[in-house]
Specification:
454 residues, alpha+beta, Penicillin-binding protein 2a (Domain 2), 3 domains, five-stranded mixed sheet, 19 strands, 35% helix, elongated
């Protein structure tokens, strides 16, 4: 019949089951042999390769930035120093979604638009496994906020570092210059060996002696966990700190030169004529170099640029103003040394001088603004007409020349406080050369002070 079932054959079904079982067993054995062979390859044949990779994942090299060299004046006073601070670094290859991370981090600590812009530029210029600084000079409150939420931001670390500080502010700005944040152009010059640096010299002596002040970057071998957090340091190559720089300038003299200008603009330089050392160098008005260390704000930068007096312009080096006379102070010193004149004596400068036996046509005229009474003490702060020098000595040119030739041989001179005539006194001759020569200068036998001003 059509719907009739055939009786089961137990022997055939048993044979079919046996064949399937054998086939399954063979397949399992083949898989186990394959897995065993792969395991043998990993553990025995390729052990060195994968052990090295595993160690590299666990042990991370971490650069150690050296301390920048200090800058001192001739008496050992600090003109540029390093102070400890904290910064926020981001390692891009450890961050899954950079935009989301930055948005979430901005809700925890404030991040300025300038910092974000600079961070994105540096991130594009560096390799992804190198940390990039997001924020400098973290405050205590900002560090506390980040420490609480740190687990939410893998790849973001709080790092200690040394930042630059200029204790005298604008006083030495045109001599020392300043350091600033490293940008992509600086990275191309420094090379990858110095990619861990955050600052470099941008102007003045900070830039001129950059290689000496910078030092050499070291590194640490740091063991990390699966989140990339440092557990312990297993090795270290110490960095080499930068060389210190001792200048020939004197902070007290620099202050006195600035005070002599008062509110006026101009430039002045004081040199030792025996050695050519620069003892003081002033360009006014000046600016505060501390503003540039960690990135100047748009507001401060605009104020400097819009200032008609141009505080960043170095009048002494770049200005086209003629220097003040160097002969007249020498003639005045000759009168003091010979006893013909006293420091408190005053001579009226009329702006006109007649040579003996000459007519009015032979007179030398100066601007009316230069006329007036002149005495020895304040005169170094202004340039006076030649008549003053001659009336100070009341002597022949031969005697003045004789005094100048002996004065150049380190004869005892005079020193004054510029404001008080009573403070003028003889200065003993020193034959011991100065040891500091931080600012290059050409030796000269001219008097030790020059000034220009408006």
């Amino acid at each position: 019949m059509h719907g009739r079932r055939h009786p089961k054959n137990p022997h055939a079904e048993a044979e079919q089951f046996r064949r399937r079982a054998v086939l399954g067993f063979v397949m399992v054995v083949i898989c186990l042999v394959g897995l065993g062979g792969w395991y043998f390859k990993l553990q025995v044949l390729d052990h060195e390769v994968y052990a090295t990779r595993s160690e590299a994942n666990r042990i991370k090299p971490k650069p150690v930035v050296p301390g920048r060299g200090m800058i001192y004046d001739r008496t050992g006073r600090l003109l540029a120093e390093n102070v400890p601070a904290f910064r926020l670094d981001v390692t891009p290859d450890k961050v899954a979604d950079m935009d989301a991370m930055l948005a979430a981090l901005g809700k925890v600590i404030p991040i300025a638009p300038e910092d974000l812009e600079r961070f994105n530029r540096e991130r594009r210029a560096r390799r992804s496994f190198l940390p990039v600084t997001l924020k400098l000079r973290m405050s205590d409150e900002e560090m506390a906020r980040f420490a609480v939420e740190r687990w939410r931001f893998p790849g973001v670390e709080l790092e200690p570092y040394l930042t630059r500080r200029y204790p005298y502010g604008p006083l030495f700005a045109h001599i020392i210059g300043y350091v600033g944040r490293i940008d992509e152009k600086d990275l191309a010059v420094l090379g990858e060996g110095n990619a861990a640096l955050t600052h470099m010299g941008k102007s003045g002596l900070e830039r001129y002696y950059e290689q000496d002040l910078r030092g050499q970057v070291g590194y640490e071998q740091v063991e990390t966990n699966v989140q990339g957090r440092a557990i312990r340091t297993v090795g270290r190559v110490a960095p080499q700190s930068g060389a210190d720089l001792r200048l020939s300038v004197d902070a007290d003299l620099q202050r006195a030169m600035v005070a002599a200008f008062g509110e006026h603009e101009g430039a002045a330089i004081a040199m030792d004529p025996r050695t050519g050392e620069i003892l003081g160098m002033v360009s006014l008005p000046s600016y505060d170099p501390n503003l540039f260390v960690n990135g100047i704000s748009h507001t401060d930068f605009k104020m400097l640029n819009d200032n008609p007096s141009r505080p960043q312009f170095n009048r002494l080096v770049l200005g086209g103003v003629a220097p003040g006379s160097t002969l007249k102070p020498l003639i005045a010193l000759a009168g003091l040394d010979s006893g013909l004149r006293r420091p408190e004596d005053r001579v009226l400068s009329t702006g006109m001088f007649y040579l003996p036996g000459s007519a009015a046509a032979g007179a030398t005229r100066t601007a009316a603004a230069m006329a007036g009474p002149i005495c020895a003490s304040p005169s170094p702060s202004r340039s006076i007409p030649i008549t003053t020098g001659w009336r100070w000595t009341w002597a022949s040119s031969a005697s003045t020349t004789t005094w100048a030739s002996t004065a150049s041989a380190s004869r005892p001179g005079w020193t004054c406080s510029a404001r008080s005539a009573a403070s003028c006194r003889r200065r003993p001759t020193s034959t011991k050369p100065a040891r500091s020569a931080g600012i290059p200068a050409t030796p000269s036998t001219s008097p030790s002070a020059r000034a220009t001003g408006r």
